[in-house]
Design goal:
The complex is a heterodimer.
Chain A: E1 2-3, H1 15-27, H2 38-58, E2 66-69, H3 72-83, E3 89-93, H4 98-108, E4 113-117, H5 127-132, E5 138-144, H6 156-165, E6 169-173, E7 192-196, E8 208-212, H7 250-266, H8 268-288, E9 292-294, E10 307-311, H9 316-327, E11 329-330, E12 332-334, H10 339-345, E13 352-355, H11 363-384
Parallel strand pairs in A: 1-11, 3-4, 3-5, 5-6, 6-7
Antiparallel strand pairs in A: 2-8, 7-8, 9-10, 10-13, 12-13
Chain B: E1 2-9, H1 13-25, E2 30-34, E3 45-50, H2 54-60, E4 68-75, E5 78-87
Antiparallel strand pairs in B: 1-3, 1-4, 2-3, 4-5
Classes of the chains: A alpha/beta, B alpha+beta.
Bound molecules: pyridoxal-5'-phosphate (PLP).
Pyridoxal-5'-phosphate binds near residues 71 and 196 of chain A.
């Protein structure tokens, strides 16, 4: 199998991730913060360790301001619904995933004003357009760090500076960039950072989190047991307990920590260099194929390793199925949960075929995929002539 | 056999675990124990160490949020007497 669907979920994971999940699942009982037997303590220590590793990766000074969630979607919902009130205005982009677009759309029906900045057809965003959209009641600017459709990296530093200048909260959806592109909450002026564990961070599904610079202005999504201040019926304000009610997925979070450790040890530079090379090969060689339209920026430095394309004469779904059936190549077709982005690039009707290599893919694999696509293009031409 | 010990309490489990890591990294012998209910209810854990090590521990724990410092006398493993309680400013 050649797995080119890392933008959906990364595979394989580093060995240490499997080992850690197995070890914690096998040896730990109880939940962190409740009961002191050694196993529960070990679970608590694993959470602490993962929090500290993530803080290290994102340049966060206070690890307790990272709370764990089940994925990026939950983190984004927590931030959006916990911060915005009727009468507030929020600015976002047309490249957002539905995990941002849908919660905002839902709030719009409750009196939150939403402005969507149109991106260019390659997915790029003009920061000046964000500044022009500011209103006196703008409370939040919410931006994806990179599009999961075109791979376009958005200018978070520039937009972060605008947010800071106008004293507006700034949220970044790092689902496609955490573990892939350097990301520092101080440099980019990020107040809320949502990430998922199972993509570039090499963790298991069901892990993710949110960094909150100002936890006091965000209401929890969930209320419940935290193992602290148990006599109170009010939710504790102390971090991270405020947003971590209920038993956490500690084996998963421990394994996520192992994934982050792998990234810190390997070096983000080395990871990025390799995935960039694979992306460059794909972009370069796919351009040579007739009847293939590639979306997103042609400059590989402006992308994460995500390439969307269409082949004339065949739907992305049929192409993806052909690649899987004939060569055991895993890709993804469709709208990738981002209809606004497809509208922006003009593929709302068709969707796209998406190739997303990861750190564990090789140049040879990528070459094989190109040869398979070359054959597919030829076959489609024959069928249609 | 009676024995004087110092217990540190914390506003949440996060700080208790952070404190344990910090003092253990500095080579102190300290362990997290279930919080005796009469001492505090903020978090379920207390950090226990020999009172003789208290000063060094406090130095290391400056960066960690503390709730209280409690000196106790234990006899046969049970708290016989609370000798001293110091509460720290929240924040
Ligand atoms: C840009 C972007 N945001 C959010 C998400 C949601 O992540 P998750 O499914 O882990 O909640 C994804 C991926 O599915 C994504 O690509």
């Amino acid at each position: 199998m050649i797995y080119l669907n890392n933008a959906a979920t990364s595979w394989p994971k580093p060995e240490a991730v499997y080992r850690t999940a197995d070890q914690y699942l096998r040896c730990l009982t109880g939940s962190p913060g409740r009961g002191t037997h050694e196993a529960a303590l070990a679970a608590g220590r694993a959470l602490l360790e993962s929090r500290e590793l993530l803080a290290d990766l994102f340049g966060i000074n206070e690890p307790e301001k990272i709370v764990f969630t089940s994925n990026a979607t939950e983190a984004l919902n927590l931030a959006i619904r916990g911060l915005l009130k009727p009468g507030d205005h929020v600015i976002t982009s047309s490249m957002e995933h539905n995990s941002v677009a849908r919660p905002l759309f839902a709030l719009q029906t409750q009196g939150v004003e939403v402005t969507i900045i149109d991106c260019a057809p390659v997915g790029t965003l003009d920061p000046a357009a964000v500044e022009r959209a500011l209103r006196p009641n703008t409370r939040l600017i919410c931006l994806t760090h990179a599009s999961n459709v075109t791979g376009t990296i958005l200018p978070i530093e520039e937009v972060g500076a605008i947010a800071r200048r106008h004293k507006v909260y700034f949220m970044v959806d790092a689902a496609q960039t955490a573990g892939e592109v350097p990301l520092n909450v101080e440099e980019a002026g990020i107040d809320l950072l949502a990430f998922t564990g199972h993509k570039g961070l090499f963790g298991p599904p069901g892990t993710g989190g949110l960094y909150l610079r100002h936890p006091e202005v965000v209401a929890p999504l969930k209320y419940g047991g935290t193992g602290s201040q148990s006599e109170l019926l009010t939710q504790p304000e102390i971090m991270p307990d405020k947003f971590e009610s209920g038993t956490l997925n500690s084996p998963g979070i421990a394994a996520l920590g192992a994934g982050v450790k792998f990234i810190l040890e390997t070096g983000l530079e080395a990871i990025r260099k390799h995935t960039r090379e694979l992306t460059a090969i794909l972009l370069e060689r796919l351009k040579e194929l007739p009847n293939v339209t590639i979306y997103g920026p042609s400059d590989v430095a402006m992308r994460v390793p995500v390439i969307s394309l269409n082949i004339k004469g065949i739907s992305p779904g049929e192409a993806s199925a052909w690649l899987a059936a004939r060569y055991d190549i895993v890709t993804r077709s469709g709208l990738h949960c981002a209809p606004l982005a497809h509208k922006t690039i003009g593929t709302l009707e068709t969707g796209t075929l998406r190739l997303s290599p990861g750190f564990f893919n090789t140049a040879e694999e990528v070459e094989q995929v190109i040869e398979a696509l070359r054959e597919l293009v030829r076959e489609v031409q024959k069928r249609d002539s | 056999m009676s024995h004087q010990l110092t217990l540190f309490t914390f506003p949440s489990t996060f700080y208790a675990l952070k404190a344990e890591k910090a003092v253990q990294n500095a080579g102190l012998k300290a362990k997290l124990i279930p919080m005796p209910r009469e001492l505090s209810s903020l978090c379920g854990l207390a950090l226990e160490l020999e009172t003789g090590e208290e000063e060094r521990a406090l130095e290391i724990l400056k960066a960690v949020k503390l709730e209280k410092k409690v000196r106790v006398v234990k006899e046969k493993g049970l708290i016989a007497k609370i000798v001293e309680v110091v509460e720290y400013e929240p924040g």
